[in-house]
Amino acid sequence: MKLVVVLMMSALPLSCYAGSGCQRLEDMIDSTIDSSVTEDQYIEGLEEFIPGDTTAQLLVEFRQCFLDQSNRTLSNVQVLMVMWVSSYLPLKHW
């Protein structure tokens, strides 16, 4: 699961700043932990980063791992990801 997170993060362009550093990343995190987003909507939102059906299925399973958590945990994940990206982006340019 950690490898999937790393691969998803590396596939996103890390060149935008503000808030977490990237609105696209925030949208991806939001759709990953939002149970009202359907699987089709989730995959459609990540379509440009998905090379094939196997990856799409793995992303659906990956997302389900998050959706099985409590709302408090999901909220903490969202905050953690924003903090992680915010601290990582400035270091990327050294």
From TrEMBL:
It comes from Myotis lucifugus. GO terms for cellular component: extracellular space. GO terms for biological process: androgen receptor signaling pathway. It comes from the Eukaryota. The keyword Secreted applies. Keywords: Secreted, Signal. The keyword Zinc-finger does not apply. It is found in: Secreted. This is Secretoglobin family 2A member 2. Its main location: secreted. Residues 1-18 form the signal peptide.
